[in-house]
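Lab notebook, design round three. We kept the backbone fixed and only want residue identities now. Task for the bench partner: fill in a sequence for the structure below.
Input structure tokens:
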């Protein structure tokens, strides 16, 4: 067999077998992480959650689902305030070329608010617009996962009843960080 024919045959075999080239598929991951909310200087533990990503040649799209997280802070002039924050589910899409580069769009809701232990009705409280995180990783691989990182902005909240001005004074703003560790699910 001539050299050119042999190289062509190897390339065809690689495409047919899926080796050496990105192929379409579905990957599931366990997701754990943290987010730092800059304005109130608060850290939230996230997860364990799940990510379901459909991958094609060099690209992905899918959903990241995280369980609600409880945050408790002492606010001057108010006292002890706690609430449950839910990020998502987030819709993610991007590229898988030499790592991971993409974005996830997350609706954010706030429920079960308590002020000094007393339940406070905040209605259908959430961000007016979903927040967007630009997620990147240099070491992410579809088969094993990796660490994704982002810096993002939280926009204004709405539909929080009389608490809307207080929430908007304490939470929204730039400089928030997100770290998510994706581990391939078995």
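Proposed sequence:
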């Amino acid at each position: 067999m001539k050299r050119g024919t042999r190289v062509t045959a190897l390339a065809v075999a690689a495409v047919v077998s899926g080796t050496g080239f990105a192929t379409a598929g579905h990957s599931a991951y366990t997701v754990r992480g943290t987010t730092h909310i800059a304005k109130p200087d608060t850290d939230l533990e996230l997860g364990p959650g799940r990510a379901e990503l459909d991958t094609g040649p060099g690209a992905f799209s899918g959903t990241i689902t995280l369980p609600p997280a409880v945050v408790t802070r002492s606010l001057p002039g108010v006292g002890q305030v706690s609430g449950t924050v839910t990020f998502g589910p987030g819709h993610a899409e991007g590229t898988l070329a030499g790592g991971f580069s993409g974005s996830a769009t997350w609706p954010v809701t706030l429920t079960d608010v308590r002020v000094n232990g007393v339940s406070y009705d905040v209605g259908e409280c959430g961000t007016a617009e979903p927040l967007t995180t630009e997620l990147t990783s240099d070491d992410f691989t579809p088969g094993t996962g990796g660490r994704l990182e982002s810096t993002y902005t939280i926009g204004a909240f709405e539909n929080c009843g009389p608490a809307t001005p207080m929430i908007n004074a304490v939470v929204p703003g730039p400089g928030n960080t997100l770290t998510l560790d994706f581990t391939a699910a078995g």
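Keep this in mind before ordering anything: Residues 1-22 have pLDDT under 50 and may be disordered.
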